[in-house]
Amino acid sequence: MFKIYQYPPLLAGKLIKRYKRFLADIRLASGEIITAHCPNTGPMTGVCVPGNLVQVSQSSDRKRKLPYTWEMIEVKDTQPTWVGVNTGLPNRVVKLALEQQLFPELAGKYDYIRTEVKYGLDGQSRVDFLLTGDDSQSPIYLEVKSVTLAQGKIALFPDTVTTRGQKHLRELMALIPKARPVMLYFINRGDCLAFAPGDRCDPVYGELFREAVAAGVEVLPYRFEITPQGIYYLGKAEFLMKQPVIRK
C-alpha cells in the first residue's frame, strides 16, 4: 500500500441531505450545520446516504461562494469504507502516479505527460492524458473514470446512463491502430477487489465497453483506499467483462 496523496486538514460531520446536485447540508462534529459544494454531479448510487459520516475540506479563498468541499463519505456495506466524493481528485492523483511511473502496465512507455489534449471524432473532445515517448513508442491516450458504485466486492461503472462515457469509448476505439487507447478506472474505495461494467445502470455502455475491449482498448482498473489521512494506491483490480448476476 503506497500513500500517493495527502489531504489537507479535514472536518468530520454527518450528511443531512444532498440537493441541486452541487449542494450538501452537513452537520459538523461541533454541531454547526454547513452547506458544502458537492463535486460529484452523478447520482452517487449506494453512496449518498443521509446520516452517514463525511469529511469536508475548507478553503481560505474568499472568492469562493462555498468555502467547504465534500471530500468523502463512509458507507457501511460488508464493512465501513470511505468512498471518495470529490471527482476532481482522481485526475490529480493519476497525474502524480504517472509522474512517478507507478502503474506497471504503463511504466517505461512514456517520457512526457500532457493533459486535456484535444482529440476525438469531431476534434472537440479532450482526453485526460496523452503520454508520449520516442518514435518507437505508440502514443497513449488515457481516459480516467472515477468509480464509486459497488456490488459486494465488485466495483461498477457507470452508476447511471452516461452518453459522455459512451462517446469516450467510441473515440478511443477510433484511435486504433495508430495509438494505444487506455481506459483507467479509478476505484474510489478500498473495499473492492474486482471491476466490471455497470450493465444494469447503462446497458449501452456495457455493450460498447465489450466492443472496445475486443477492438483493442486497454482496461486498467486500479484500486485506491480513501482515508481522512490520504489516498493509498492498492494495485490493479481483477477485471470482469460483465456485471455478475446475483441470485437471491
List keywords for this structure.
globular, seven-stranded mixed β-sheet, six-stranded antiparallel β-sheet, 44% strand, 248 residues, mainly beta, 3 helices, single chain, 17 strands
State the distance separating the first and last CA atoms.
Answer: 35 Å
Taken in chain order, the helices and strands follow as EEEEEEEHEEEEEHEEHEEE
What percent strand?
35-45%
Q: Which structural class do you get from the secondary structure elements?
A: mainly beta
Strand element count: 17
Largest sheet: 7 strands, mixed
Mean pLDDT: 94
Please give the order of strands in the largest beta sheet.
Answer: 1-16-15-13-10-9-8
Global morphology: globular
Assign a percent range to the helix content: 10-25%
Low-confidence segments, given as residue ranges, are none
Q: Helix tally?
A: 3
Over the alpha carbons, how many angstroms does the gyration radius reach? 18 Å
Outline the structure in words.
The chain has 248 residues and is mostly beta strands. Helices cover 15% and strands 44% of the residues. The protein has helices spanning 89-99, 163-174, 203-215, and strands at 2-6, 10-19, 23-28, 33-37, 53-58, 68-76, 80-84, 112-119, 125-132, 140-147, 149-151, 154-157, 180-187, 194-197, 218-227, 230-236, 238-239. The chain has a 7-stranded mixed β-sheet with strand order 1-16-15-13-10-9-8. Helix 2 packs parallel to helix 3. The longest helix is centred in the C-terminal third of the chain and has 13 residues, at 203-215. It is globular, with a radius of gyration of 18 Å. The model has no long low-confidence stretch (mean pLDDT 94).
